[in-house]
From TrEMBL:
This is Branched-chain-amino-acid aminotransferase. Signal peptide: none annotated. The gene is ilvE. The keyword Heme does not apply. Belongs to the class-IV pyridoxal-phosphate-dependent aminotransferase family. Its cofactor is pyridoxal 5'-phosphate. Pathway: Amino-acid biosynthesis; L-leucine biosynthesis; L-leucine from 3-methyl-2-oxobutanoate: step 4/4; Amino-acid biosynthesis; L-valine biosynthesis; L-valine from pyruvate: step 4/4; Amino-acid biosynthesis; L-isoleucine biosynthesis; L-isoleucine from 2-oxobutanoate: step 4/4. It comes from Trichocoleus desertorum GB2-A4. It holds the Pfam family Aminotran_4. PROSITE patterns: AA_TRANSFER_CLASS_4.
Length: 303
């Protein structure tokens, strides 16, 4: 059971989490016509009167775009103000995860996005490690990542997560921790809720935006950090066998942070992971606001 933060934002106001409930007839529940964000925050290790949200502006922008795909006008600055107020009201005591959600809130049937009421809610939960920081085993999924011609992959559309769910469960039921999905071209796309990176000969390779990936904010952070550290980064299509032949493979996501991959199918990877560890150390320092160079990525909220 999760430890939910006590206050939710629901129907334009802050209410106790237990009172933020929806009808079984809610349109989005039936058609997957929602879109969400996912942010991590922590109490500031240097200042107990402050919380830190990582890359708040990028998350608000992505959610605002996702809302646009649902024909809902929700400006990024409005989302940001609600999220800041949300943190101030909750004053979490540990690392937490915030889940903002836009959705078709009408009661009624018929899939559509026009002439239908939409709404926005926010809730949060305490969140430790989503995947083992020691590393995970990955199965190549028999389910394929969707294509942008079927649904807007630049949004985090809730209906798309049926594929992630099928892939994750298939992986876990066959003894793996996580799934790696190929795209319809048979190239590596991403994991069930993380982007993927391969290290070969000191260079980092990750599938580009044309590989049906989610435009991950941690992915963007990793690429920026790597370039700043002088590590060569290549965004291109990636073959399955490159995962098996890699020196290092890691996953990135808000929930998963940087998680090393120990094994892909039955191909074991080295336990020496100099680049993964270097990036992970740097990302942790940045999220804890211990790296002045990346101060702009950390949004402090005083309470
Ligand atoms: N891909 C998918 C399918 C995801 O759900 C996520 C998590 N939001 C990611 C990648 C990683 O994105 P981010 O770094 O923005 O959390």
């Amino acid at each position: 059971m999760h430890n939910f933060l006590p206050i939710a934002y629901f129907r334009n106001q802050f209410v106790p989490f237990g009172e933020a409930n929806l009808s079984i007839a809610t349109h989005a529940l039936h058609y997957g016509t929602g879109a969400f964000g996912g942010l991590r925050g922590i109490p500031d290790p240097q200042n107990d009167q402050q919380f830190l949200l990582f890359r708040l502006d990028a998350h608000c922008k992505r959610l605002s775009n996702s809302a646009k795909f649902l024909h809902y006008d929700l400006p990024a600055d409005k989302i940001q103000q609600i999220l800041v107020d949300f943190v101030k009201k909750n004053r979490p005591t540990t690392s937490f995860y915030i889940r903002p959600f836009v959705y078709t809130s009408d009661l009624g049937i018929a899939p559509r996005l026009h002439n239908i009421e939409k709404d926005f809610f926010v809730y949060g939960l305490e969140l430790g490690d989503y995947l083992s920081p020691e590393g995970v085993s990955c199965r190549i999924s028999s389910w394929y990542r969707q294509e942008d011609r079927s649904l807007p992959l630049r949004g985090k559309i809730s209906g798309a997560y049926i594929t992630s769910s099928l892939a994750k469960t298939e992986a876990v039921e066959s003894g793996f921790d996580e799934a790696i999905l190929m795209n319809s071209q048979g190239k590596v796309s991403e994991a069930s809720g993380m982007n993927i990176f391969v290290v070969r000969n000191g260079k980092i390779i990750t599938p580009g935006f044309d590989q049906d990936i989610l435009e991950g904010i941690t992915r963007d952070s990793v690429l920026t950090i790597a370039r700043d550290l002088g590590i060569e980064v290549i965004e291109r299509s990636l073959d399955k066998s490159e995962l098996f032949a890699a020196d290092e493979v890691f996953l990135s996501g808000t929930a998963a942070k940087i998680t090393p991959v120990q094994r892909v199918e039955n191909y074991h990877l080295s336990t020496e992971r100099p680049i993964t560890e270097k990036l992970r150390e740097k990302l942790t320092a940045i999220t804890e606001n211990r790296d002045p160079k990346y101060q702009d990525w950390v949004f402090p909220i005083a309470v």
